[in-house]
Design a protein that fits this description.
The protein is mainly alpha-helical. It has 3 domains: about 50 residues; about 90 residues, Type II secretion system (T2SS), domain F (Receptor-associated Protein); about 230 residues, Receptor-associated Protein (Up-down Bundle). Helices cover about 75% and strands about 5% of the residues. It contains 16 helices and 3 strands. A 3-stranded antiparallel β-sheet has the order 2-1-3. A hairpin with a 5-residue loop joins strand 1 and strand 2. Helix 12 packs antiparallel against helix 13. It is elongated, with a radius of gyration of 31 Å. The termini are far apart.
């Protein structure tokens, strides 16, 4: 038998340390788990025996991260890896050590190493994460806190990983659906600019050699073409300045609220933006409530992570009403933002004690709704864009050929 020192926390979060005699670290881990402790680290007297490494036969590998930023994919993979390793009985510190050697982001590598240092100093996992708010959101920190307190950290991280994977897949689906319309719009705009800047001036030079009065449509096209050719740099500069000013305005709270109000007021797309936010709200609430986070904390986390000031204000009002003792369904209905179906499903979930399942079902419904909307939008956009392009190009062609018809009639 060998001696193993351990660092752990009980369900109240109190840090404990001690030593156990055992044949292997797995035996120590089983004993501590049986006592209801959350194991942070197990350190043998001989570190080489713990890792079962022969220094002479050890192959040194050079760490080669691929990029410096931390992408959503990096965080999703990190969460899934931690959940898998903890589920297999590996301690948190050893899990972080294993993941650090294969992470693709330089910055995430440094963050993981800092997590290890803080936890070796006695911090819990969520306390170490809280020191990196730009990397780990409130959703992460509160779920990990809940997992450490309940002793189900592996299961809750697995739920978080599933949520992140579904969210990432959903975003990719939206981006994929919008790629074709955006490409079609760019190509169409490029074609119109080419006709305006290159083709119309060529015809204009030809018409100068004829002593005729050009039709009104032709003159208008030539004026527009001349203006764009001479002022295109000025137009681009103005567009950049306006874009910069708009971005600065939206960065203010009042500007952001007005911008959000404008988006919600758009025909067709305003409803789409509203449904997008409801989908995110139901997804996060389902994950939080299922993981055992109290409803008030769940609403507070969602308020800050919904990324919409208008809806954040609505959720804050809902949270305040729930704190006063109202059922969740009542302030949701009074807000006027959520559909009657959301209110009814939440009301049923509260009555039967299945609130997380109701949020899951709502999230599935809104995901399908968004998917259907995008499919219909992409199906309709192509013919509408083609008709629009056909009309504009047709007007240009007619405008350029009218003088030719006029010249052909001169005897």
């Amino acid at each position: 038998m060998a001696k193993y020192f351990y660092i752990a926390r009980d369900k109240e979060g109190i840090k404990l340390s001690g030593a156990e005699d055992a044949n292997n670290p797995e035996e120590v881990l089983s004993r501590l788990h049986a006592k209801g402790l959350i194991v942070i680290n197990i350190i043998p007297e001989s570190k080489e025996s713990f890792y079962n490494i022969n220094p002479k036969s050890m192959v040194k590998t050079k760490f080669k991260p691929k990029h410096n930023r931390i992408t959503q994919g990096d965080l999703t993979l990190f969460c899934r890896q931690v959940a898998t390793l903890l589920g297999a009985g590996v301690t948190i510190l050893k899990s972080l050590d294993i993941i650090a050697q294969q992470v693709a982001s330089k910055r995430l590598y440094r963050v993981i190493k800092d997590l290890q240092r803080n936890m070796e100093g006695g911090s819990s996992f969520h306390e170490a994460m809280a020191k990196h708010p730009q990397v780990f959101s409130e959703l992460w920190i509160n779920l990990v806190d809940s997992g450490e307190a309940s002793g189900n950290l592996a299961m809750i991280l697995s739920r978080l990983a599933t949520y992140m994977e579904r969210n990432e897949a959903f975003k990719k689906k939206i981006i994929s659906a919008l790629i074709y319309p955006v490409i079609l719009l760019i190509v169409g705009t490029g074609a119109l600019l080419f006709l305006t800047i290159k083709i119309i001036p060529t015809f204009a030079e030809i018409f100068k050699g004829f002593d005729i009065t050009l039709p009104f449509l032709t003159r208008m096209l030539m004026v527009v073409s001349e203006f764009i050719r001479k002022k295109i740099l000025f137009i681009l500069i103005i567009a950049v300045i306006l874009g910069f000013l708009l971005k600065k305005f939206i960065s203010t709270k009042e500007g952001r609220r007005r911008y959000e109000k404008f988006l919600f007021s758009l025909p067709i797309f305003g409803e789409f933006f509203r449904i997008l936010i409801i989908e995110r709200f139901t997804s996060e609430m389902a994950t939080l409530v299922e993981s055992g986070v109290p409803i008030l904390y769940s609403l507070e986390i969602t308020e800050h992570s919904v990324d919409n000031l208008t809806v954040g204000d609505i959720i804050r009002k809902v949270k305040d009403d729930v704190r006063e003792g109202k059922p969740l369904s009542q302030p949701l209905e009074e807000s006027g933002f959520f559909d009657p179906m959301v209110v009814q499903m939440v009301n049923i979930g509260e009555e039967i004690g299945e609130l997380s399942n109701m949020f899951k079902r709502l999230n599935t419904f809104y995901e399908e709704y968004i998917d259907t909307f995008l499919n219909r939008f992409t199906a309709m956009f192509e013919p509408l864009m083609l008709v629009f392009m056909g009309v504009i190009i047709g007007i240009m062609v007619i405008g350029m050929f009218l003088p030719i018809f006029q010249i052909s009639q001169i005897k």
